[in-house]
């Protein structure tokens, strides 16, 4: 989302962040300038300076019998008086804790961050977070450097502690709905949808704070930098389950929209997007790929999402196979790579 105009942020956030209740691979919102800060309260008092003035006036009144002495005394006092220190500004506590500090530390110069969200089930050794990191570290073209700009949003204390053990930029998103987020949430279950809605509300806050973000699920493998395929002319860029060849065609099918949300998305993209003059870019699955529409060209692929795949065990099985093939590919000679010698292991549980 570009700009910080809340009149344009609100409907689009209601659309994309509200309709995308299911897992979305990559969402890129651009907000070049902040519309408002969550906390921007400064309270200063002039009482100290008023008191100093009163003191000088009192001295003048008590010494009215000698005008010259009064003037001399007042001038000397004014010259030697030490101004009272200004009181510290009073700032209300942020309801988001240390969020602004974490964002500022991770952001690029143009205030862009990469974000993902995890719970404790994904931080266990050998689980999705380990595979996620490994994809960056075995990737090409300096993609590993993007980890410096990754903010991991954790949904429970165990996930937060697990994150801090392996990464610099961790944020604990505290919730008040009483849901235990430590375990895996079944796709489209009540707790899963509540977790997605909480994520959506949080993402709107990041926009309001004036940051651009690219959201990635932790079951996305990062092999090359995907930013080069995101047009700066787009207000929103979103990955595709099915890509028809035209990045700006509204007939593309975006990642992560379950059946009930498709109607909402269609309503928005055909009616509200033109009214708001918004450019929505759908990312080419040759580069920003997934199990739904798999890119077979390892020379092009930037990210690979375990979409169209339900269950943590199934995702882990297939993504481990993906990483095995990628490691062999990166160890191959240029001629072997150009010849297309390396292909995904098919079929898997979900990948085909």
What does this structure look like?
- The protein has 352 residues and is an alpha/beta fold.
- It has a domain at 23-32 and 94-309: Spore Coat Polysaccharide Biosynthesis Protein SpsA, Chain A (Alpha-Beta Complex), CATH 3.90.550.
- It is 38% helix and 12% strand.
- The strands form three sheets. It has a seven-stranded mixed β-sheet with strand order 4-3-2-5-1-7-10.
- α1 (6-19) packs antiparallel against α8.
- The longest helix has 20 residues, at 312-331.
- It is globular, with a radius of gyration of 28 Å.
- The protein starts with 5 loop residues before the first helix and ends in a 14-residue tail after the last helix.
- The relative contact order is 0.16.
- Residues 1-71 and 73-78 have low confidence and may be disordered.
- Pfam families: Nucleotid_trans.
- It comes from Miscanthus lutarioriparius.
- Residues 146-254, 263-319 form the Nucleotide-diphospho-sugar transferase domain.
- InterPro entries: At1g28695/At4g15970-like (IPR044821), Nucl-diP-sugar_transferase (IPR005069).
- This is Nucleotide-diphospho-sugar transferase domain-containing protein.
């Amino acid at each position: 989302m570009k700009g910080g105009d809340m009149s344009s942020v609100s409907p689009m956030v209601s659309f994309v962040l509200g309709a995308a209740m299911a897992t979305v691979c990559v969402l890129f919102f651009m907000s070049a300038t902040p519309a408002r800060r969550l906390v921007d309260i400064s309270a200063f008092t002039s009482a100290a300076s008023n008191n100093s003035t009163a003191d000088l006036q009192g001295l003048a009144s008590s010494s009215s019998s000698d005008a010259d002495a009064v003037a001399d005394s007042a001038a000397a006092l004014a010259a030697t008086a030490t101004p009272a220190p200004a009181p510290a500004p009073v700032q209300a506590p942020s309801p988001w804790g240390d969020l602004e500090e974490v964002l500022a530390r991770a952001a690029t110069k143009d205030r862009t961050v990469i974000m993902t969200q995890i719970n404790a089930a994904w931080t266990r050794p050998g689980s999705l977070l380990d595979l996620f990191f490994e994809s960056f570290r075995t990737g090409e073209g300096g993609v590993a450097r993007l980890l410096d700009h990754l903010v991991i949003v954790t949904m429970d204390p165990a996930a937060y502690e697990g994150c801090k053990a392996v990464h610099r930029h961790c944020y604990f998103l505290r919730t008040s709905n009483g849901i235990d987020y430590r375990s895996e949430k079944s796709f489209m279950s009540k707790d899963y949808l509540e977790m997605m809605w909480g994520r959506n509300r949080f993402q709107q806050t990041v926009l309001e704070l004036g940051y651009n973000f690219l959201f990635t699920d932790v079951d996305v493998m990062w092999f090359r930098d995907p930013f080069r395929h995101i047009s700066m002319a787009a207000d929103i860029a979103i990955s595709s389950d099915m890509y028809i060849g035209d990045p700006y065609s509204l007939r593309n099918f975006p990642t992560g929209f379950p059946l009930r949300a498709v109607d909402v998305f269609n309503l928005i993209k055909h009616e509200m997007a033109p009214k708001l003059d918004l450019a929505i870019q759908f990312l080419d699955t040759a580069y920003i790929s997934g199990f739904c529409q798999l890119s077979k060209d390892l020379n092009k692929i930037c990210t690979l999402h375990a979409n169209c795949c339900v269950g943590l065990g199934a995702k882990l099985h297939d993504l481990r196979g993906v990483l095995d093939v990628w490691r062999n590919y990166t160890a191959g000679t240029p001629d072997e790579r150009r010849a297309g010698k390396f292909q995904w292991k098919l079929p898997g549980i979900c990948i085909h």
